[in-house]
Amino acid sequence: MKKIALLFSFFLVVIVTVLTTFVNSNYFFDRYIAKNITEYGFSYTHAQGALLDGFVVENLKYKNRTLSSNVELKINPLHLLSGVVSVSKLNLIGVREDVLESVLNDFKPSSDSNDSTTIALDFELKNILLTIKPFQIKEISIKKNTLSVDYVSYLNNRFNVGKVNYEAKTNLGDINFEGKFEHRVLHIYKLIIDNFALKRVVFLIKGIKSEGSQEEYHLTSNPFIPKKVFVDKASLNILPFIFKNIKSKEIELSLKNIFFDVSKLLFIKGDAAFDYKGSLLALKTSLNYKDNILTLNDVDVVFNEIQKIEEIAGTLKTLGNSESNSSTNVKIFPIEKIKVTQGTVKAKACKYREEE
Predict the structure, then answer these.
(1) End-to-end C-alpha distance for the chain, whole angstroms
(2) Contact 266, 308 (CB under 8 A)
């Protein structure tokens, strides 16, 4: 009986070894994997490696158009037994945005499905690196686009993303982002936006609104939308611009310790610092918001053209009326009290002309 058990164990080890060697061979990759991907329109110049050890594909093409100059992929095939697609490493270098968009459009789910908030297959991707070649979409020019992610998983209708590092250089501004999305909480460690072209962005937003493309999201049930947002540190630097003969020379905004409850559409707390220099005035202050109380610390205001205060006030009044006539009654930023701890107001000398 012991001999039979030993023989059975021996043959089992041999079979597992042979199968592992076969699956991890170049023949298996070329015969089964490479052949299958070509049926979906993919091709490549050269590939090396094996299924279990990971492989590198050079010059990956889709429908004879280069998708990526270099792809490195390592999967965990044993996880497929439990119905989970598991990738332990995924690097996509030199991706062409137009070809990637073509792939996504060709493989997007059928529009017949009524439930757009669920995915039929569980997956887990780790050690992701994506670099996209410079491209342009309408008036938006992307010069640099790099994304690295610790992991992305969708298991049991739960979507989580590990630490994300994203860097982009565009004609709308330069972005540097660090954060994660876990248990439907978006935690932003750092968000820096430099050289932000506000006037150009406003023009683009107006164009998007005129197209009338708008999509509704169910905040409470969609696993891809956060319930809460925390921001440790964020900063925004806006390029100089001119609006209705008013010159804005310098605008800087920094945020920290921000907490926004998306499920309630309610701003909970946060700190901010604002520095503005323009042709009409200069304003510098720091703000704190907590328990529906807005506190302004060290407010410094210098009016350069005080005779235009009425013009500014009229503009603000118009904006206020447009907000009050809005169809929504949701108070995202409720303020019960405003406190000013310290401040100075200065006005440069000017001449008034009396109306006849």
Answers:
(1) 120
(2) no
